[in-house]
Write a structure and sequence with these properties.
The protein is an alpha/beta fold and about 130 residues long. The protein has a single domain, classed as 3-Layer(aba) Sandwich (Rossmann fold), CATH 3.40.50. About 45% of the residues lie in helices and about 20% in strands. The chain is built from five helices and five strands; from the N terminus they run E-H-E-H-E-H-E-H-E-H. It has a five-stranded parallel sheet, sandwiched between helices. Helix 4 links the parallel strand 4 and strand 5. Helix 2 runs parallel beside helix 3. The longest helix is centred in the middle third of the chain and has 14 residues. The radius of gyration is 13 Å and the shape is globular.
Length: about 130
């Protein structure tokens, strides 16, 4: 499995990487712009990501905007719905509006509230059929 971890917080990135590294090759992006570039590059190289762990609140380009752009790239490239990247939104917010927007407007697959728990993250990845 190939995963992209997108978070502006070093501690959060490191925690998610430590959890996933035994089951995935992990790349890291520190903001939405880097995430979009990494996603596009991987897709064009024929080595797309299977999972993106995406923080919602980041400087420059936030997770909501990045997610919309990632889904637009998939559409442009005619990626079949069943092959779309699974996006687990990771957020400190327990904000119903943010969660609603991520799912219904952005196309997130699921979400976890920080701090990320190892069992919950691995359980979510397993439920998505990635491990």
């Amino acid at each position: 499995m190939k995963a992209l971890i997108v978070d502006d917080d070093f501690y959060s990135r490191n925690m998610i990487h430590e959890i996933l590294r035994s089951v995935a090759h992990c790349d890291i992006a520190v903001n939405g712009e880097e995430a979009i570039e990494a996603f596009r590059r991987a897709l064009m190289q024929g080595e797309p990501y299977h999972l993106i762990c995406l923080d919602l609140l980041m400087p420059e380009l936030d997770g909501q905007q990045a997610l919309r752009e990632i889904r637009a790239i998939e559409k442009e490239c005619d990626v079949p719905m069943q092959s779309e990247v699974k996006v687990v939104v990771t957020t400190m917010l327990d904000d119903e509006q943010e969660t609603h927007d991520a799912f219904f407007l952005g196309g997130a697959t699921s979400y976890l509230v920080k701090p990320i728990d190892e069992d919950k993250l691995l359980g979510e990845v397993k439920s998505l059929g990635l491990i």
